[in-house]
Design brief:
137 residues; seven-stranded antiparallel beta sheet; 0% helix; 53% strand; globular
């Protein structure tokens, strides 16, 4: 199997700090629906927000795939990823830009919740994918 053949976040329950117009069209669930033409978005004035994936059980991953919805352009400048440890969030990655696809690869992480934080954006974020994978060895 290839690294990207299984998205471990596919069945995750998603919640977000803000959803554009509180509309299902821009719901947090759009980041793990497997469709790159749908996306989670925030209201125009909301440039800093977050989206949480509750995996329902502990899973192990070492690759995170992030994608922006490109027809609206590049929007995200700075982002961070957190894992839920005990009773608190702990950051495990940060980066600049997402664009067509930004991959984070690192040591295996085992957690039941992952959060993407948009720290800085040029316009309201439009995130098409947050996927978790285990590197094919």
């Amino acid at each position: 199997a290839t690294t990207f053949s299984v998205d471990l976040a596919k069945k995750a329950k998603t919640t977000a700090g803000n959803t554009r117009c509180n509309s299902d069209q821009f719901a947090p669930s759009k980041v793990n629906d497997g469709d790159r033409t749908t996306y989670w978005g925030t209201d125009d004035a909301v440039l800093v927000s977050d989206i949480t994936l509750d995996l329902g059980k502990s899973i192990t991953f070492d690759v995170v795939s992030l994608r922006e919805y490109l027809p609206l352009g590049l929007r995200v400048d700075d982002w961070a990823l957190d894992q839920w440890v005990g009773k608190e969030w702990r950051e495990f990655a940060q980066g600049t830009g997402i664009g067509n696809r930004r991959l984070w690869r690192g040591q295996p992480i085992t957690t039941d919740k992952v959060r993407l934080r948009i720290i800085k954006a040029a316009a309201c974020p439009a995130i098409a994918e947050v996927a978790l994978h285990l590197e094919a060895k």
